[in-house]
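Re: the pair you flagged

First of the two:
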Amino acid sequence: MERPSINLNFSKESARGGQTAAKTIKGSQSVYRAIAVLRGVARHHHTGITSTELCDKLDLTPATTHRLLQVLLSENILTVDPYSKKYHLGLELYLLGSAAHDFAVREHLAVHLDNLRRLSGATVFLFVRSGADSLCLRRIDGDSAIVGLTIAEGSRRPLGVGAGGLALLAAESNRMVEKVLRSNTSLYGNYFDVSIEEIWRWVEATRKRGFSFNDGRLKTGVRAVGIAVGPPSERPVAAVSIATDDTRLTEALRIEFEQLLRVQFENQEKSLLNLDEKLFGGLR
């Protein structure tokens, strides 16, 4: 099942300071405005929203909106896509709001992520699905820095972009894949010049292999292998990927990475199902 959508109402009056409350609570106007901005972004957390759109919806000046957004960004409450300039909910808020599940998954897999980093010597990522995006919950850098690798904890990309996002997408049903691709059609051009049909071929190849593979098309000089993690009969709980410099990733090393992923995470299916049962009583 999909995660519940956030449906938060906000108004121009709330953005101007919650006028009645602001009169009785000294110095509260900036707090009310920040909450209004946060609600505005939350209401559009799947598609994202620009600073200009927030100004129009909240009847705030560009300067005020920019100042509030910068504060929320600095605290990781929000994140911004460097290509579309759209704001989304950030990792800090995501962890606060989803602590019952995603933070538990992050902690549950922590030892295996550390083992994977130690055994591979490469950079390791943990992703979860957030709407039509993949959200990076953990990044552990490898022995050698990868120049220009922009994925950070809290960053998000459309599902299908990168090894982790492709592994998550391929583990969904055909109906859900189609829905995600329609939702993200206008965004994929920010990352690579491919057709929806080609992304479908990547999905099919990932399902056939059992692993996703980023051959460097997304970021020149970087290659990665990924795997969806979770019970095979359920939607994936997360995805894990290993990234390294493409000059290092020979065919033999790629196969080794796949084996490491399989050893570290395939045996987690039962324990993750038990974790879901513990947290949600099987209702997720």
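Second of the two:
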Amino acid sequence: MKKMMLLAFVCLGGWSVMAQGSGSGNNSKAAGSAEPKVARATQPPQSAKSGQIEVLTIPPKPTYLPEAGSFSIGISANPFLDYLGNMFGSYTAKAPDLEGLAFGAKYFLTDENAVRANLKFGFDSKTDEHGVTGIDASSGAELNGEVTDTRSSSNLDVELHIGYEWHKGKGRVDGFYGAEVLFGYASSSTTYSYGNVLHPIDDTPMTNWDSSSGAETRRKYRPLESKLGASLTVGVGAFVGIEYFLAPQFSIGGEVGLEFAYTSAGQAETKTEDIRSGEREETTAHSGISSSNIGVRTNPNGHLFVSFYF
């Protein structure tokens, strides 16, 4: 009996020891399978070009003032400003009147010196028509109907200014002054045509243009053409002005000046028709005298303008 109890105690002790050995083995495996957590130092990313410093480039400020070799084209703004003023004023707004419109061009020899040319060109033409009672030239009797009298007039005014400029500017503002020579030409003429023919039988046909009242009258003597004496002008002048550049290649400005000019005008010429000795004749006559004038005047090209530079 004692042997049986001893054997059981020994077996229980062995199992206990085996159980403990198995538990410690499992714990060792668990401990061995878990990898220790290692703290890794975080480093800043390295640049592909290590050791180089990136430099930011600041764009230069735009240059507004013209330089040597610059070329500009300008146009007077007065007709368009008058049009805008009439739109907001009490006057009826009409399309801009381009008569006397001035164009200009200049070339910079250096940053501060330029040569220039200004052209003022004015031309207008007008035609008026009036209906008058028709006349039978073979009998002088009035017809049932009207014929048309026509009057056409035209005016031409051209001035060319060639000058030299000195410039002084800063930032967007450019002041200038200079001297110039000028040449001008002006003429005016009016022509007439009639619906009723001047005929020996009917030597006083009905007409309208040879009447100061504008009413129909019978006239034996009728004008065909009239010309004012053409005028020629030469002179010298001085000017001063300023430009403001809204953009590097675009400016607005103004200019005033004085001119010393000599003007010569010819006699007026008139061509007429009438009946003499039973025949229609045309006669050309000159009236007035040739005249000349020397004087000082403000520069007619004094104006506000816009310019484009290239």
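Residues 1-48 have pLDDT under 50 and may be disordered.

-B.
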